[in-house]
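Forwarding the complex inputs:
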Amino acid sequence: MPSAPPHQPLLYNDGRGLFCPAGGFHIDPWAPVPIALITHAHGDHARAGSARYLCSASCAPILKKRLPEGAVIEPVPFGEPIELRSAAGDARTARISFHPAGHIRGSAQIRVEASPAASAASEVWVVSGDYKRQPDPTCEPFEVVPCDTFITEATFALPVYRWEPTDRVVHQIATWWSTNREHGRVSVLFSYALGKAQRILAELDALAARDSAFVWMRESGAHLHGAVVPLTDAYREAGIAMLPTQPVPTDTPARRTKNEYAGQLIIAPPSAAGSPWMRRFGPAASVDTAFASGWMLVRGIRRRRGYDRGFVISDHIDWPDLLETIRETGAKRVLATHGYSETLAHHLRDQGLDAAPLETQYGETEASEPEPEARASTAEGAN
Amino acid sequence: MRRFAQLFTAIDATTSTNAKVAAMAAYFQEAPPEDAAWALYFLAGERPKRLLSSRLLAQWAIAEAKIEPWLFEESYRVVGDLAETIALLIAAGRTTDDSATDTDHNLPLSRWMADRILALRGMDVSQQRNHITSWWRSLDTTGVFILNKLITGAFRVGVSRTLVVRALAQAGEAPAETVAHRLMGSWQPTAAFMRHVLAAHAPSDDHSRPYPFFLASPLEADPAILGPITDWQLEWKWDGIRAQLIRRAGETHLWSRGEDLLTDRFPEVTEAAARLPDGVVLDGELLAFSGGKPLPFAKLQRRIGRKEITRRVLRDAPVVFIAYDLLELDGEDIRTSTLRTRRAHLEEVITDLNSPRLLTSALITADSWPAAAKLRNESRDRAVEGLMLKRLDSPYAVGRTKGDWWKWKVDPYTFDGVMVYAEPGHGRRANLLTDYTFAVWSDDRGGRELVPVARAYSGLDQSEIAELDSWIRRNSTERFGPVRAVSPTQVFEIAFEGIAASDRHKGGVALRFPRIARWRKDKPAAEADTLASLRGLIHGPPPQATLFDNL
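Prediction (whole assembly, two chains):
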């Protein structure tokens, strides 16, 4: 277990999460702590068992659905600074605030301003959580927060990862559904239950509104796997416009002569792929499957997972936006977490920045788009 | 190229084989034959002689993408395919509408090949670079990917040759077996060839063309399920090179199963075959052979890939052709007659020839399956891989048609090894640690250490691969480029077909076809096998019993 380094930085991994001694809190802890600041509600960042949770105001209703009944959740509006006090009995405090990260609804970067030691000058650190710069109708757009040290995610930190404009990918999804509909096939689109599913439902709704060729999508609506339903409800309650949806009934379907799902769009978490749940949609020949994920950019990964189609749409930052964001923050030092953190740090050092990977336990459940293979080791994510 | 790119996209966008076949059939019908011929050429797995090295292509891509070489390497490791890595780095997100020149997209595939890609061969390196980088700049992502595949000649897009044959049969007028036959041997991707492939009747214009090979299926069950043993012909399963020997129009042709022409590589065999009657095609096995018995496969291996056949090579590794079937007699295709009949003709032909270089595969007599099983257990001592079981009244079919030909191999050797290294695979296994190295304990006195003895890629199922990948990532101790050293705690049972002493391998042994039999989660690393126990499996000189004692 890592212990406090001798020079004690403002934030470090104390074995339970990113710990800030000056403010007595942890960010996205993976073990129970007294005060947990949560960047967003995905399972690998928001875990049960802490005494108090602080998160953005729009994250709170979603976090409530993800944590056990009775968890103490304190919403903090974006941009509003609050003071937290050291638990060590010294007089130190940290000034923290939440800023939009654009990853999923309510996702936040956390800005921390404090002195690492009693006599030292104060520093500004920003923990990005997961984030993206592409527009997303379901969440608040990413905001650049200037800082001295930037702790960034590195899920897709390789130059091959460059996202296409969202409109183009959404058009591909709608066309795929449309073609399957003409042939009477069921379209099963796998996507992460929180964030990606709602983003796609919102984008398809917007496409139906602006392009008369797709207006039928609003009449048809989509069918949701049980894991996607409560989160979609939470988004709808927050006023996000999405395609109409209805749950796929949980009872075991009787044998039918006619496939009631022919031509329909089903949205399900990737864990449903290949499960008995899929049988209700008829024989494999009448079902077309697709996965909406940044990982689908690489042909080999898509073919290995056996989906018919892969739609490259991600809630994580791609390579060019990542480099641009680092520049814009003006950070002198960059610490990289999950994914290709070593590659990113190496590249930034080549560019003359102070950079290093930072060991964490993020990116270990499917909700946050880990490497597809990590899926087998965790059952979390589809709740 | 637009139409070919569309075909590629259609094939790539489905996992249904019927949909793939339908897409190809539509393409073969609609595309001009001169373009369709090239598409067929690549889809069937043919490739032109190498135009330029992958290394050069990578260098130019690094310059074009303006990234550090190590970052290119990292990207390549994740993507697992050079053509795709370059396409993603140079043309990511670019679509046809964005591209500067439309002519590149619309230029037909045959013109791309003839005027541009094959024309690279005569150019110097800087000219090649200018052309290729200018195409990279104008094509869209798929276009760049396909272009790179055409240049490097490694065009595997998830369709097997069987599927291509089915598509051609759908698109044209010839049945699948005829199409398969027309695609055998060497051919040029021309419009005339394309019409020939699709035509209902075509004169057989090529005397060198082999028949499609009939492949045996592995027998996993008790042979008793095959019915009475008297319905079956039993032979040894030879450990050589499957080949077809053709004598037509006064010429001899020798083809491997991989459809390489071997005629010049085995002069002792082709010289003997010159005395065969005209219009004869034999199916059989090439074996290094001396004193009435096979020599180790390694001897034969030294003959493959060797262009110059010196007197010394001929003396060290003399080769024979052991015939086990007759496919053509007096110029007539007799594949539909029964094995019983074909075998009788085969024995006549070989007896008349009376050459020590052309033999028939001995028939094994066993009056019951248990008796056959007993003979099978002698396989290792006889330097064969087991038994072949062939139904006596079966025709000679195409491909792996199940039911009439079985290979009943002897159980493989096994040892328990400790995983010590892992590295990522390619293609479908990109970014997944699937290439493993296994070690056994040295038996030196004073301190045991793990000595790597085998690398294996296959044998685990998808979920085990995923679990192991995740374990390796959490238990890597060191990295050497793409290779990770892992904590030596996981034990695997490794199966292999043969073992020989080798001074080129660290452990002093070379294993044939090592693969994972199972993951021994129950076994601690300390209980893995030792080098001494592996060496104990190396046989002395081959036994004296001759294989042809029943001839």
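Chain A touches chain B through 32 residues (CB under 8 Å).
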